[in-house]
Design brief:
Blueprint: H1 4-18, E1 22-26, H2 35-40, E2 45-47, H3 52-64, E3 68-74, H4 75-80, H5 83-92, E4 98-102, H6 120-124, E5 130-133, H7 138-149, E6 155-159, E7 177-180, E8 186-190, H8 194-200, E9 207-211, E10 213-215, H9 219-229, E11 232-240, H10 245-251, E12 258-264, H11 275-281, H12 286-297
Helix pairs in contact: 1-7, 3-5, 8-12, 9-10
Organism: Streptomyces cellulosae
Pfam family, one: Transket_pyr
Protein name: Transketolase family protein
Length: 305
């Protein structure tokens, strides 16, 4: 199966051909995937080199000129390193762009901590007006990329990952999907965490919601799910643990409830290892999730939380 990032360049190249407003900005990463697009659209495909602050600043200038910029590099270089430009050049100037990241939380462990960005969504949460898509399958990535580019002049972040669920689902860029229904709690699985969550909750009497668009947070879907399943809620995210617990708490603010956020821990893992080893070390493998979810929905608090 191809990866989410494999879909990125062909989809955006097609959008470049179809829409004269679309522009692509790169900082070396992924530039080889746009060779033909650069030949056809030399004025709308720009590689600024390894200058990530310039990358976002140039995107802001293009947006001010009426273009719809699609900006791509690794998450740590797209959100964290040029955060001032994301905050000021896009946010303060009230212009939009589509930021499309790669490498996610720890897709490339050998790259070390400089190439990991588990805090990217939490960092964007400090700013106003961002839509955040977290696809869990290449088909969903393609759908959500098209939604993002077509979203007027909004500010949109699309978080691509090498981790993928086995099958794509019919996502619409807005709502959570109900994948399983139960009566003893609600588990919100974000993007590529769905398969592990489904394996972890097999035989448990819980509702599983699938979220690929986490901002805005689908409060209505969560409230509907709690009507039958109760107000014990677990949010399993492929980035910093607790990133969406505030949104879940807000959705249920008028109800007695408990929310547990599971995700990537704050402690840095200083050995390269493999992706699956990082996943297990953060308690995001199916076995660890089952223990933590089971204990919480039974009224306790999982070990390590």
């Amino acid at each position: 199966m191809d990866t989410m990032r494999d879909r990125f360049a062909p989809v955006v190249t097609q959008l470049l051909d179809e829409d004269p407003r679309v522009a692509v900005l790169l900082a070396e990463v992924g530039a080889d995937r746009f060779t033909e697009a650069l030949r056809r659209h030399p004025d709308r495909v720009v590689n600024v080199g390894i200058r990530e602050q310039l990358l976002v600043g140039a995107a802001s200038g293009m947006a001010l000129a009426g273009l719809r910029p699609v900006v791509h590099t690794f998450a740590s270089f797209l959100v964290e390193r040029p955060f001032e430009q994301v905050k000021l050049d896009l946010g303060h100037q009230d212009v939009g762009a589509v930021l499309v990241s790669a490498a996610a939380s720890f897709d490339w462990p050998a790259g070390g901590y400089t190439h990991m960005a588990p805090g990217d969504v939490a960092l964007l949460d400090t700013l106003d007006g961002w839509t955040v898509h977290v696809p869990g399958h290449p088909d969903e990535a393609e759908t959500l990329l098209r939604h993002a580019v077509a979203a007027g002049d909004d500010k949109v972040y699309v978080r691509l990952s090498l981790q993928s669920n086995a099958a794509g689902r019919p996502v619409d860029g807005r709502r959570f999907l109900t994948v399983r229904e139960g009566r003893a709690g609600v588990v919100v699985a974000v993007g590529p965490m769905l398969d592990n969550v489904l394996a972890a909750t097999e035989g448990l009497d819980v509702t599983v919601l699938y979220a690929t668009t986490v901002r805005p947070f689908d409060a209505d879907a969560l409230r509907r799910a709690t009507e039958a399943a109760g107000t014990d809620v677990v949010v399993v995210e492929p980035y910093l643990a607790g990133t969406s617990t505030g949104a879940a708490n807000d959705a249920l603010a008028d109800l007695p409830h408990r929310v547990l956020g599971l995700g990537v821990g704050r402690a840095e893992l200083r050995r390269y290892g493999q992706f699956d080893e990082h996943l297990a070390a953060h308690g995001l493998d199916a076995g660890s999730l089952r223990e933590r979810i089971s204990r919480f929905t039974a009224g306790g608090v999982p070990a390590g939380v």
